[in-house]
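Troubleshooting log. The previous run stalled partway through. Resubmitting the same two chains, unchanged.
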Amino acid sequence: MEQRILAYFEQRPNEYVSGEQLSELLECSRTAVWKHIRSLRERGYTFEAVPRKGYRLIGVPDRLNAAELLAALRTRSMGRSIKLFDAVESTQTIAHKLAEQGAAEGTLVLAEQQTAGRGRMGRRWHSPKGKGVWMSLVLRPQIPIHFTPQLTLLVAVALCRTVRKLGPDVPVAIKWPNDLLVEGKKISGILLESNAEDERLRYVIAGVGVSVNLEKDDYPDELRSVATSLRIASGREWSRAELIRTFLEQFEALYELYHAEGFEPIRSAWEAQTISIGRPIRARTPKGDVEGVAESIDEMGALLVRQPDGAIVKLYSAE
Amino acid sequence: MEQRILAYFEQRPNEYVSGEQLSELLECSRTAVWKHIRSLRERGYTFEAVPRKGYRLIGVPDRLNAAELLAALRTRSMGRSIKLFDAVESTQTIAHKLAEQGAAEGTLVLAEQQTAGRGRMGRRWHSPKGKGVWMSLVLRPQIPIHFTPQLTLLVAVALCRTVRKLGPDVPVAIKWPNDLLVEGKKISGILLESNAEDERLRYVIAGVGVSVNLEKDDYPDELRSVATSLRIASGREWSRAELIRTFLEQFEALYELYHAEGFEPIRSAWEAQTISIGRPIRARTPKGDVEGVAESIDEMGALLVRQPDGAIVKLYSAE
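Second attempt completed without errors. Output:
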């Protein structure tokens, strides 16, 4: 019934449709029509209601659609298989299961909402419905386990390039190792989880969360001072589908470059987009606190920090 | 019923017990007695049957007992919690589940038999009932992911020391990275599976399979030329319980040394017990085949191979 109402409106863009017209179309009472309109509003559709003129459809919800995403996607392997869910606990958990069952490299798990999204170090990740990109990508990189720090940085570069491409007005930069910041506030999180046999990586799940269209009120109090969204930063709505597509394309290009030429080009790209190099840094490590100035990323993906006494310490992203 | 038969025999060591005695004891027919004896034989008990004298119990199966293992175990954390199963698909799979559920470091999964035991590189591991040690140990090492090659070598050293301690007559040595060989044939396999978030290891499952009391006939044809057992190598039965205990104690000592002093003492111990150093080696790697002479293990746990042209290549155990 509601599909028929939507189709009727879509055939009459910008026109007012009266309650009477709808009740004749659907062969139901005016009250029933009103109830359907209310239900559509709850699903995210916006109607203007003008007395004596009727209803006008002025906004459709931003819903992801796997078929539409795929149709416009120009990649070889990334996102060629898309599993889209309305609400899940965590896209990471689902991607792990798919990987265990043999899912191909590039399989993408997307959700409109995560009820228990995971961040780094066991933290929660706030993933409200329809407002962000909450996704997990299955990777099967042909690299030994000790190269995973490089992959973490690679994902950050791909995401930073994506935001810069779609919003050149947004001053985004990478904070070591892989947070994207806009004016000091976080707009995204990256979490790599891997499964290995000896030093052979069986698979890596790259989790990416981007706060796209969240507004200030969408954040719980404790996050408001540290988190922002692309919408808040730019003052406009962003297309989540376009962001997903662009990320997959940027990521695939970098990932192929990495397999062909190694970490060096990724390292240069990371260093060009970060705000962490040349800055003072303080970090807690298993062997005590480290303070100093971040100088560069080494060939393994570790951050080289020069301490006040001149000695260089290597930091890995887990620390 | 069978417990009562066993208790009766155990009170009369080396005595013959007639079928008539047993049928009176159990208040059942001679046929029923015979059926119980047959069933006990299937469970691994050995009876001598002499006409007109009766049965004599001459062999009890070597069964593992978690309480007995624990009572004699002198470790702080390794094996302090033991999950013993009769038959499982793979102790690795069970240990993964326990680790995901938060099992403490040192939790040990043991099985009398594995129906789908896993070896390295996705191979099968032959794990017949009651003849070997098939175990998986949950570890939560405080090391970054790129140090896992070191752990692989550490487990091999612990197992090699165990065999040398219990059987100084058995000429066991480590073949790179972590196989134990006796006279060129394999007696054990080690498989480390790890789960990480970025570079932080969440947990590692150390799988250890030791062919203890297998006889030639216990091996399928295709394994007979490459595999052997401690029993075949030494000509005597080994206590599996003693082997498990000794391994846990040796492993714990090395693991604590590793956390306190790093990889250097482990590397020396590995090099002292290997047959691989100084020998020609050929290996297949993602970047092509490597041929040369193995020179040493580097500080990360990689094998340094000098190629005919003098160049040094690093090999990781997965290759």
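Takeaways: The first helix of chain B runs from residue 2 to 10. The domain at 66-273 of chain B is CATH 3.30.930.10 (BirA Bifunctional Protein; domain 2).
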